Amino acid sequence: MKKHGRKLVADSVFVRTLITLLALLFLLLISFWGVLNRMMKVNYEHGVQENSRQVLKQTSEMTELALHLLSDDLSHMIWEDTILSYLIAPQSRSSQEEYEVLLLLNRLAQRSDLVETAWLYAPEEKWVLASDGFAGLEDEYEQYTMLKDYIPSTQISDKQLQDADSRIFIANDNLYIAVDFVLTKHIGSLFLQVNLPELYEMVNAQSQGEPIYYLDQKGEFFAPESEIEGRSFLSVNMASESTGIVRHGKEQWCYQYNEKLQWIFLQKMDTITQGMIFREYIPIVIPGLLIFLTLGILGAYAVTRKIYKPINQLVGLVLMYGEDREAQKNEWSYLKLSFMQTMDEKKMLKNSIKFWENDILEQVFRKLLQGSAPEEIGMNMLDPDTKAIWKNGRQYQVVVCQKSQEAKATNAAELDSRLFVQSIEQIVKKNKDFSGLFVVPMDQDFVAIMLTDSDKSAVQLKKAVFQLETEIFNAFRASAFAVSIDHGRVYAHWEDLIYSWQEGVQNIRYNKYLKCSPDAVSNESMERTELNREQQRYLEERAHQILDHLLKEQQKQAENLLERISDEIMQSSASLEQKKSYFDTIEGVFLEKRLTVSGQEKDSIEDKRNEFKDDEDLRKYMVEYLKLQMEQILRGTRKNSYRYVESARQYIQENCSDSGLSSQMVAEYLHINTSYFSEIFNKQMQESFSSYLNRIRIDNARKLLLSTKLPVYDIGFKCGFTTVQHFNRMFKKYTGMTPKQYRDTKST
């Protein structure tokens, strides 16, 4: 590239930009490869798992089919005339009949490679005939150990086993199939021993890779032999699902549960390596990555040219008309110099804004209070730090002051309004209770004190505003003129400060209206100033804080708070009568709450507050008087809490099957706060709501498991559990066993 006679050098903006974009491209390529590799691995693992599931399913079905074919043969053979006559009429047996039975048994054993041996057992005579030619007493037969422990179906309590034509069971590490012949009692049994190696070889012919293991209900491998501890697999509770994946140590195993055989088929999954994934996906991924890389490089080059074009033209013009061409040939140095000059200019502008910041802020707020639109007041002209203070606050309020002439101030008309504003500014500068505080002079001798805060609670903000108003009021008390002070409500956005300003102005005008209308207002109302009304509201908030402690049964904290509030009242500059009215405010809040929780109106001590002429005696009496009311509120609250908990328990019993039942629903039913309900429930029941609800649901599930034949998953749903896994986990937590184990154990 050559523009305006300049050659492209390694230190040019073009080269730097292109290298940066190519570096970003390669970082993006590496990130994309990491995500793609993860996706390919997950997809490959899914394919391996699905293949293992299919293999195990086929193996399970084939094993079940092979064993049931043998069971059918055995069931048919026991009804052969020769077998029946041999078992029913032992006294008329002949050597010929015995020979025919041996011949039938031999044919049964030779019919399939899966049959290792077959024999007929007559328990009355303890006589055994086997396919290998054995005829003799049971204690002489090689399978005597199995016969000695054999329990016929007539002695098994399970009705399903009694009605079955045949049984498949494991004994002494061997697999057997048995058929019992029963009339009024056990007459005889026909046995078949399965050739496990042959069965294992037959079903594993379909598997690829790792061998397939058989796991019985006791957690033992019986084909093929394995060094792995099978019982550790049973802790996974695999039988809750027919198929799935379990982790055993660092290995992953796929399992298939056969409900009829009650066997678990296991196969260890192949370890997935990066090479396997590459071989699977490399024909697709590599061309795609090459295309992506090529398009990325071409795109980076095109973007660099577009970015560089205006820079190249600008630097070319500078070189063409510049005085010191040698010093400006390096375009990168020129851009750095231009950047530094721009930053210096920005810093100078910022300093200028900082110098005029107070004037700018005054104009911004005056326009806002005069009703200008937010986008027209120039808030963006402020310094970023100042703008952040006023835009990121959480509470906004305006305190309004007005210079008002009184009869005692004869020279008030001569005072300059600016002196009045400066006096307020001096007071405000000393105040550090707010995040932001600014004084704005307005028309008609009004002054607006704009304030914002992001940390204080509503009560703390009211107290801070009250203290600020008190400082201003006291500062002007000894001056030649009086000041009227009030404020508007607290708002959550700075644009709403205009409403707080209008409310403050309206409050001042209303107070003046009352003072100018003595016939319409009683003497008692005339004596109450704006500051006293604010104190009343503040004390109501504090009284509600005491009640919050009582509702939480924090009596000590409530009494300490009452002591602190009493000290605040006594330390104020109010008269004795005003202090009595402050205590009346707290008592009014207490009385309203006491009527709600206990319905009591009478006090057990006599009201003597009007007899006291001393502050300390008044304080001592009122603290004792209010503590008595606090005790009555606390007793009523405790009685209500007992009633609430009893109603909650009844509601839970009736609705525990609802899976969406929560403490919030119960609290809404009782018409009380959720956190308060949780607190009283935990305290009285000595356990959490969720623990109590789970215990009730598990008790109901135990009853249903023993009284019905519903499936386990249906019982969990009826008892209010959202998933079978959650039901199994909670049931085992409270009973120590799974629902299926509980039903089997209790039924037995």
Q: How many domains make up the coordinates?
A: 5
Outline: elongated
Q: State the distance separating the first and last CA atoms.
A: 92 Å
- Work out the oligomeric state of the chains in this entry: single chain
Low-confidence stretches: 1-10, 159-164, 407-414, 517-530
The radius of gyration is 47 Å
CATH architecture of the largest domain: 2-Layer Sandwich
Largest sheet entry: 6 strands, antiparallel
Mean pLDDT: 76
CATH superfamily of the largest domain: PAS domain
Q: Any idea of the CATH class of the largest domain?
A: Alpha Beta
The fraction of residues in strands falls at 5-15%
Structural class: alpha+beta
Give the neighbour order of strands across the main sheet: 5-4-3-8-7-6
* CATH structural fold name of the largest domain: Beta-Lactamase
Helical stretch tally: 25
Give the tally of β-strands. Answer: 17
Tell me briefly what this model is.
58% of the residues lie in helices and 13% in strands. The protein has 25 helices and 17 strands.
What's the layout of helices and strands?
Elements: E1 2-3, E2 6-7, H1 13-77, H2 81-88, H3 95-110, E3 115-122, E4 127-130, E5 135-137, H4 144-149, H5 159-163, E6 167-171, E7 174-182, E8 186-194, H6 196-203, E9 212-215, E10 221-223, H7 231-234, E11 243-248, E12 251-258, E13 263-268, H8 274-321, H9 331-355, H10 357-369, H11 384-391, E14 395-404, H12 417-429, E15 436-441, E16 446-453, H13 458-477, E17 482-487, H14 497-515, H15 523-527, H16 530-551, H17 555-571, H18 576-597, H19 615-655, H20 663-670, H21 674-685, H22 689-707, H23 712-718, H24 724-735, H25 739-747
Antiparallel strand pairs: 1-2, 3-4, 3-8, 4-5, 6-7, 7-8, 9-10, 9-13, 11-12, 12-13, 14-16, 14-17, 15-16
Helix pairs in contact: 1-8, 13-16, 16-17, 16-18, 17-19, 18-19, 19-20, 19-21, 22-24, 22-25
